[in-house]
Design brief:
Elements (H helix, E strand, L loop, with lengths): L3 E2 L3 H11 L6 E3 L2 E3 L11 E5 L4 H12 L1 E6 L3 H8 L8 E3 L2 H8 L5 E4 L3 H13 L3 E5 L6 H14 L3 E4 L6 H11 L6 E7 L23 H5 L25 H10 L1 H7 L6 E6 L11 E7 L8 E7 L25 E6 L2 E5 L7 E5 L21 H10 L9 H21 L8 E4 L4 E2 L6 H4 L14
Parallel strand pairs: 4-5, 4-7, 5-6, 7-8, 8-9, 10-13
Antiparallel strand pairs: 1-6, 2-3, 10-14, 11-12, 11-17, 12-13, 14-15, 15-16, 17-18
Length: 463
């Protein structure tokens, strides 16, 4: 049964007594607009779903930016560890996010979601539908349809949103995107994006079932996913390699590594996707994949082909023209994004698009001081940017759901349609209708676009 963990009524009443006036706040224009009798410095009340892994830093950011009134995790050990942290003293503890949101209700202004991928959309959708600002870890959702649906909900409820692709807030990424938009490499032709993932087991059979530890509510961990027995390896990390729970190497890292090219070239709504993989059993993702995306021209650029590489696959080294970077051990850096244009190339050698160089077609690096000046909005920090969009200090964070991270997630997760079709090695080229979210020549991957939900989790999305 869904449950709250160890209610702390006395301390919570005392806390709410001191902050009860904030309940007069209403969301206007995607941010909290406090009534005239409240100070502009009124503190935002946060609740965090998932408090370990990335949830550790996300909930910590929430506590440092406002008042943390609720924490939720299916693992009691995670909850107890979190409750002992500074700033978490007055947070009520829950194992079920549905119970937390229902019980705390109007005493929450904003919610962070830091769970396995398959739980992102239901938790975020419930929070948004209740009028809460929402920060959700990457990838924003588990499926393409969920990414589109969260865009719609964020726009409908006009709340402040942000995905946790922290590189979006760096000056390096924003400057690179601005330079691409102004044509620093001429007309873009190709983009190559590479990751060193997966770094977890992937592509094999399920682990041996066993009893779940008493501190873990396995039914709540499964959430909307089909039932399966607990086994060592799913919780807390290797879930990424399973279709029912994660999004593989692509979903794990592309929201970072694909981010800068997306920002600079607006790589939304490809017309086709095709993959070559090392093979998979349609239960766990492949150990290796290469994915090709075809993007039609838009009002900013001509058509562009994008290539994704993981599992040790890399692009043709000639693309680097002798500029490939090495790490401190003297080994070539795998994670990178390379945008090849008519007159030059922009090459970033990190996951976040923050560090990069521009070189001409002969491989000559253009000194940084010789690059043109460009204007871009400097971020106060990724979480702070979202916090300010709640308090009204800014309109929107860059990685908001409706305009940026939703379309970015759609693009990325389309790659997994092609990966599913490539279970035997080379898959068919899937033609994509972005308006209707339809793989027009591949009805066999429709269940990857939009999945079925166990229990009531799909109701939050209107599924």
């Amino acid at each position: 049964m869904p449950r709250r963990v160890k209610p702390r009524q006395t301390s919570r009443r005392d806390f709410l007594k001191s902050t009860s006036a904030i309940s007069a706040a209403v969301f206007v224009g995607g941010r909290v607009a406090f009534c005239d009798d409240r100070s502009a410095n009124s503190r935002v009340r946060y609740a965090s779903i998932g408090v370990e892994g990335k949830g550790n830093s996300d909930s910590g950011d929430a506590a440092s930016h406002g008042d943390l009134v609720g924490i939720c995790d299916i693992d009691l050990l995670n909850l107890d560890k979190a409750a002992a942290r500074p700033g978490f003293e007055n947070a009520a503890k829950f194992q079920d996010f549905r119970v937390m949101l229902e019980e705390l209700g109007d005493s929450i202004d904003a919610v962070t979601v830091s769970t396995p991928d398959h739980m992102h959309a239901p938790a975020a959708a419930m929070a948004i539908s209740m009028g809460k600002a929402c920060f959700c870890q990457k990838p924003l959702t588990h499926t393409v349809w969920e990414a589109r649906r969260l865009q719609e909900l964020a726009k409908e409820h006009n709340v402040a949103t942000q995905m946790g692709n922290q590189g979006t807030a760096t000056d390096g990424l924003r400057r690179a995107a601005a330079l691409l938009k102004m044509g620093i490499i001429g007309a873009p032709r190709e983009v190559h994006v590479t990751t060193d993932r997966p770094i977890w087991p992937q592509g094999g059979p399920r682990p041996t079932p066993t009893d779940a530890p008493p501190i873990v509510d396995w039914n709540l961990w499964l959430g909307p996913a089909p039932e399966r027995p607990y086994a060592e390896g799913y919780h807390p990390f290797a879930w990424r390699g399973w279709w029912d729970f994660g999004t593989g190497a692509l979903g794990d890292m592309a929201c970072h590594t694909f981010n800068m090219p997306f920002a600079g070239l607006r790589l939304a709504n490809p017309s086709s996707i095709q993959a070559v993989t090392s093979g998979h059993n349609r239960d766990s993702y492949p150990q290796k994949s290469k994915i090709a995306f075809e993007f039609p021209a838009n009002d900013q650029r001509g058509p562009v082909n994008v290539f994704w590489y993981d599992g040790g696959n890399v692009p043709d080294l000639a693309i680097f023209k002798g500029n490939r970077r090495i790490n401190s051990n003297g080994d070539p850096i795998i994670s990178s994004s390379i945008i090849v244009g008519e007159t030059g190339t922009l090459y970033s050698w990190d996951d976040y698009g923050e560090n990069w160089i521009v070189y001409d077609n002969d491989g000559n690096v253009i000194p940084n001081e010789d690059l043109p000046e460009v204007e871009f909005d400097r971020s106060p920090g990724h979480f702070t940017e979202w916090h300010q969009s709640i308090t009204g200090e800014r309109e929107r964070s860059m990685s908001n759901f409706e305009d940026y991270s939703g379309p970015l997630t759609e693009t990325i997760l389309l790659g997994n349609l092609a990966v599913w079709a490539a279970a035997e090695g080379e898959g068919k080229k899937i033609e994509w209708d972005a308006e209707t979210l339809t793989p027009t020549n591949a009805p066999e991957v429709a269940h990857i676009v939009k999945k079925e939900y166990r229990g009531n989790y799909g109701e939050f999305l209107g599924a």
